[in-house]
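Troubleshooting log. The previous structure file for this entry was overwritten by mistake, so regenerating from the original sequence record. Sequence copied from the archived sheet and checked twice against the printout by T.R.
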Amino acid sequence: MTSTLAASKGSGITSAWPLMQRPPSDDTADDTVATSSRSVPAIMNYVSPETTDISTRRDLAGSDDAILGAIWNPTRVRVANARLLDGDMGQRMNLDANGFELWSKSNTNSSEDAATFRRMEFCNQDQVVEEYYPTCERLVSDAIASQQSSSSSSPPIAHVCAFDHNVRSSDRDSVGKIKSKSAIDDKDQEVIASPQVQNPAGLVHADYTKTSAPRRLDNLSNPPKLNDVLRPKLAAQNKESLLDPTMVQEALEGKRRYAFINVWRNIDAENSVKNPPLACVDAATASVDDLRTFKIHYVDRVGENYFVCPPSSSSKRQHAWYYYPDMVMEEALLLKQWDSMGGIACGAQSDVVVAKNTDKEGRAGGGGGLSTFTIHSAFIDGSCSAESPPRKSIEVRCVVIW
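Regenerated output below.
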């Protein structure tokens, strides 16, 4: 990694969200290069090690204010082509060990689900919740079942539920506006801001922290908040909460395992993803020392993510970045956002270090080799033409309880 430290804004100073940068290319820009190349150059928007407290405010439409306290540290890296791992190394990335994996039409989804993707209006929020969420739940169930097939001690899945999503595009006007019939609070008749198509997140981050993951799980066992996408559906079903409070309490007490898994998909039926694609860090190469807490102040709650600083050049543990070039609609990238049995979740410095409280079956204590989450970011692929079609994608968050 080569660091190019941005001008410091200093802790407590407001800064803008960082822009993705096109790296100096070591190949001629050609849309056929990325698929065959072993790696491509990229500039990742890390924060500097001096960064401490970071925060922003997020409105009901999902849009963020400026950031307070971030010191940006754009850093040059190489991003490896994960599609080549199956072919010559026998090292296919997977959720358990690496925190992410690719599922395609060859190993997932029925023909009925594939047809759903093609006819889906992904900017129709109500249709996404009713028709697309169930396909994501089935996909996550299949992925976890495939991981468990080699472990007879793994408990059965008790619950998989999709509960939130974002639509993103590098050209938001080309996607259109999010449509929803449920932008009114039925109790107070308060008009709720309609959700917005978001820009790709071009900064290095992880989606939950050791504080926000159990808090979000607990929230899902309580009445939905104003900006919860499932609020109208739960009201129509006369349900007070998405998850059973008893099951959630057992998970919070360590009697059950829980995880959050993101299903990321290209929603452009005509074009594969060129720029900006999504890259993930192999969870085995991340450390607690790299993480900085980022607080998101909603109208009715406070969430937390991790921003990330690059490992020092002298560190033996360097982030290993991977991506899947040219993703098409029939493929889905699964990203682990949090796993309560992962090494970091259980108090270890990294996911490859066994936590001291690990038991023989890897229950509440977690263990070495089981990922907690994958750090990730969108980036500009310099091997693709600047005239490539804009990225259009959807990400659906699912909660899993064993």
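Residues 120 and 128 are 7 Å apart (CA to CA). Archived copy saved in two places this time.
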